[in-house]
Amino acid sequence: MKLKRRSQIAALIALASLLVACNDATLAQVAKDLDIAAKTVGAVQTTVIQANQAKLIPDSDTKLILQACIQVNQAGQEAVAFTKTISQLDEPSRTKLVNLLTPAITSVGNLVQNGTLGIKDQGTQQRIQLLLSSLQATLSGIQIAISGGN
Amino acid sequence: MPLALALIQLFNTASPGIAQLILLIKKKDGTIAVMPLLDEAGKDFADNISQAQEWLKAHG
């Protein structure tokens, strides 16, 4: 009887934890968007590196783009690490995530504006521009979701 | 999914009926999927950093 009672209490405590962990759909959206952002940055990097290998992008432009990508990746890592510690997006959590992601969004915005200017091959330029715009949209989407726009 | 099933079996043993509630929670907002997504994102971000740093190191 005692063992059964303890098991019931343990199950109730576990369920309470699960309920707390499962009450924020916005958190799920942020997690999904972070995953998409990570994959998009990967696609940008791979495309840029391959274009550089094919001599379609000079080393100087490749360096600028990759340095900006590292900044985005690092911000993404911090956002992931922080999101893992929370069970819902309360006000302090939203502020923290916005502060983590804003520099990355600015960096990508700068790349969209100027990062592909040195790429002479039009096809390559357009491909990278499209990927950067897609990344910008994903990061902005996270910002909107965090701000309660979803 | 395997984790969710294991949890459901555990809860069902300890307290029948809770499993249905958990399934309901999962269906309603799918938030149980948050951790695997974050793990995947974290791994991808880390791989990206390694790739970029490798190129930068090679092109000093």
How would you describe what is shown here?
The complex is a heterodimer of chains A (150) and B (60). Chain A is an all-alpha fold and 150 residues long. Chain A is built from five helices and no strands. Chain A has helices at 2-21, 25-53, 59-83, 91-115, 122-146. In chain A, helix 2 runs antiparallel to helix 3. Chain B contains three helices and no strands. Chain B starts with a helix and ends with a helix. In chain B, helix 1 (2-14) packs antiparallel against helix 2 (18-29). Chain B is mainly alpha-helical and 60 residues long. The A-B interface holds A 7-8, 10-12, 14-15, 18-19, 21-25, 27-28, 31-32, 34-35, 37-39, 41-42, 45-46, 49, 52, 59, 62-63, 66-67, 69-70, 73-74, 76-77, 80-81, 83-84 and B 7, 10-11, 13-15, 18, 21-22, 25-26, 29-35, 37-38, 40-42, 44-49, 51-53, 55-56, 59.
Unreliable residue runs of chain A: 16-23
Q: What class would the helix/strand composition of chain B place it in?
A: mainly alpha
Radius of gyration of chain B: 19 Å
The percent range for helix content of chain B is over 70%
Which quaternary structure do these chains form?
heterodimer
**Biggest β-sheet strands, sense, barrel of chain B:** none
Number of strands of chain A: 0
Span between termini of chain A: 48 Å
The main pleated sheet of chain A reads as: none
Low-confidence stretches of chain B: 14-27
How many DSSP-defined strands of chain B? Answer: 0
What separation lies between the terminal Cα atoms of chain B?
A: 45 Å
Helix/strand order of chain B, N-terminal first: HHH
Average the pLDDT over all residues of chain A and give the rounded result.
85
Beta-strand proportion of chain A: under 5%
Strand content of chain B: under 5%
Can you tell me the overall shape of chain A?
elongated
Radius of gyration of chain A, Cα only, in angstroms? 20 Å
Biggest protein-protein interface? A-B, 44 and 35 residues
Helix content of chain A: over 70%
